Amino acid sequence: MAASAGPEIERLISLLAKLPGLGPRSARRSALALLKRRDALLLPLADAMSQAAARVKTCSVCGSLDTQDPCAICSDPARDASLICVVEEVGALWAMERASAFRGRYHVLGGLLSALDGVGPDALRIGALIGRASDGGVREVILALPATVDGQTTAHYLADSLAKAEVSVTMLARGVPVGGELDWLDDGTIAQAMRARRPA
Ligand code: ZN
To answer: What would be the CATH architecture of the domain defined by 65-171?
Structure first.
């Protein structure tokens, strides 16, 4: 490590190193870039982070992140409330929005079922999804989950759990590469997978 840096800089580096995609080496480079560009980067970033920490919250309806609760999507009367698209994480919701492939509402699970990692149904927002799907205003639940083992296990579990609700349950078509996370896909692929969805 950069043993000559002071404790404030070491703290900055060790926090940056916890970000996805940043190891210790790129964390040191990022810290240096921030410190060298104090006015252009460091101070605006610190301000943006403190604003986000103070104002961003989890939508109590869909589980997305926004400064308002319910979020802008859940509160938008122009969006079709009878369609719910189920995604693993907020990143996948953002990918769907970038692709402009969907004009309904979302439900963010907060993860996937995983026997290996000990993630069971109670750890995810599955009860809330069944509640929303059963309230009478929903006609279709679209499972937009990754084509991984955990993604497909979760999709089957949800399809079973939603069998009692009077909704059709569909999945994205698999133009999606195996193991593909939604937020890595280009917009056209997502849009096509949404159009060609099939019964779960
Ligand atoms: Zn919402």
So the answer is: 3-Layer(aba) Sandwich (3.40)
